[in-house]
Design a protein that fits this description.
The chain is α+β, with helices and mostly antiparallel strands and about 290 residues long. It has 6 helices and 10 strands. The chain binds a DNA duplex (16 and 16 nucleotides) through loops.
Length: about 290
DNA sequence: CTTTTCTCCTGTATGC
DNA sequence: TGCATACAGGAGAAAA
C-alpha cells in the first residue's frame, strides 16, 4: 500500500543516507526477496558488492539506486516495497527485525540499509538502465504525475480509450503510475465522480480534473510525510507520516462526507474496498 | 489486442 | 480460550 508519496519519502531518505556511499557487503535471506533477480540471491549479492551508490530515483511506486562498480556501469538496484516493505537505515548493532530480508553494509562502517517486509510482496533485483535512465524491467511503467516525462494529455487520451471502470484505469500503472487504492479514492472524491464510471465515457475536462486532483492529493500527502495506518509505512528512520488524518473518503465508512455530510459508503471492488460519498459521487447506472 | 481474474504473503481484527 | 475466516492489496502471470 505504500503509494507514490510514501515511496518518495523513502527515496528522499535514501538520497540523504545512502547516496555517495560504497557498498561493502550484502546479505540476503531466503530466495523470495530477490525472486525477480533471475540469477538468484547469491548472484545479486555478489554483483552489488564494491559498487558506488550514485543516485536514488523513483518512478511511480518503484525505487532504484543507480550504481557504478565492477558489475556494470549503467546498472541499478531496483526496489519495490510491495504492500509492507520498509527500507530502514539502522546502526549495525541494532537487533534484527523479525522480517528482515536484506542487509546492505557500506565501506564507511556507518549505519546499514535494511529491507524489512512482513508480507513479502516487495523485492529487489539488479537491472540495466536504458538510454533515458529507466530500469529495463519497468519500462512498461508509465511516468507518474511528478515526472518531467509525464504527459497529461497523453494520459487523458489513454483513459478515453479504456472500456473499463475509471478507478481500475487509474490503478493501472501502465496508464499513469504512483496511484494506489488510497489516492485513487481521494482523487475521485475530490473530483466528485464515481470510480465505477467507464473511463471512455467521461469527458476530457473531467479526466483532466481527476488527474489534477490525484496529483494534488499526493503532493499534499507528501508534504505531511505520507499516509500511515498501522506503522507499516515508514521512512528510513522508522517514522510514520500523518496524512491519514486528512483523508476524506478512504477508510472513512460511515463517517460524514466533509463536503456534504452524507455517510461515506464502502463498496467491494476487485476483491478490495472502495470508499466514496453516495451523494457527491453517484453510482453509474449498471451497464447493459 | 484489451480486459479481468488469480496468485503471491502474514498480521490483525472479528465472529462463533 | 481457540479456531476459522475476512481483510489489507501491488503487480505480474494467466486466462478470458
Amino acid at each position: 500500500m505504500p503509494e507514490l508519496p510514501e515511496v518518495e519519502v523513502v527515496r528522499r531518505g535514501l538520497a540523504e543516507h545512502v547516496v555517495g556511499r560504497h557498498i561493502s557487503d550484502v546479505q540476503l535471506s531466503g530466495h523470495r526477496v530477490a525472486r525477480r533477480h533471475l540469477a538468484g540471491p547469491e548472484d545479486l549479492a555478489a554483483r552489488l558488492r564494491d559498487s558506488d551508490v550514485l543516485d536514488a530515483r523513483r518512478r511511480g511506486k518503484y525505487l532504484w539506486l543507480v550504481l557504478a562498480g565492477p558489475a556494470a556501469d549503467r546498472s541499478a538496484l531496483l526496489l519495490h516495497l510491495g504492500m509492507s516493505g520498509q527500507l530502514l537505515v539502522q546502526p549495525q548493532d541494532a537487533a534484527d527485525e523479525k522480517h528482515l530480508h536484506a542487509r546492505i553494509r557500506f565501506s564507511d562502517n556507518g549505519p546499514e540499509l535494511r529491507f524489512v517486509d512482513q508480507r513479502t510482496f516487495g523485492g529487489m533485483a539488479l537491472a540495466d538502465l536504458d538510454d533515458a535512465g529507466i530500469p529495463e524491467p519497468i519500462r512498461h511503467i508509465a511516468p507518474d504525475p511528478f515526472d518531467p516525462a509525464y504527459d497529461l494529455e497523453a494520459v487523458v487520451g489513454r483513459l478515453r480509450a479504456r472500456q473499463s471502470e475509471l478507478k481500475r484505469a487509474l490503478l493501472d500503472q501502465t496508464v499513469v503510475s504512483g496511484i494506489g487504492n488510497i489516492y485513487a479514492d481521494e482523487a475521485l472524491w475530490r473530483a466528485q465522480v464515481h470510480g465505477g464510471r467507464i473511463a471512455a465515457s467521461l469527458s476530457r475536462p473531467m479526466l483532466r480534473r481527476v488527474l489534477g486532483h490525484a496529483r494534488e492529493v499526493m503532493a499534499e500527502a507528501l508534504g505531511q510525510g505520507g499516509t500511515s495506518f498501522d506503522a507499516l509505512y515508514v521512512n528510513v528512520n522508522g517514522a510514520s507520516g500523518y496524512f491519514d488524518r486528512s483523508l476524506a473518503a478512504y477508510g472513512q465508512e460511515g463517517r460524514p462526507c466533509p463536503r456534504c455530510g452524507a455517510p461515506i459508503r464502502r463498496e467491494a471492488f476487485m476483491g478490495r474496498s472502495s470508499f466514496s460519498c453516495p451523494r457527491c459521487q453517484p453510482r453509474p447506472r449498471p451497464r447493459g
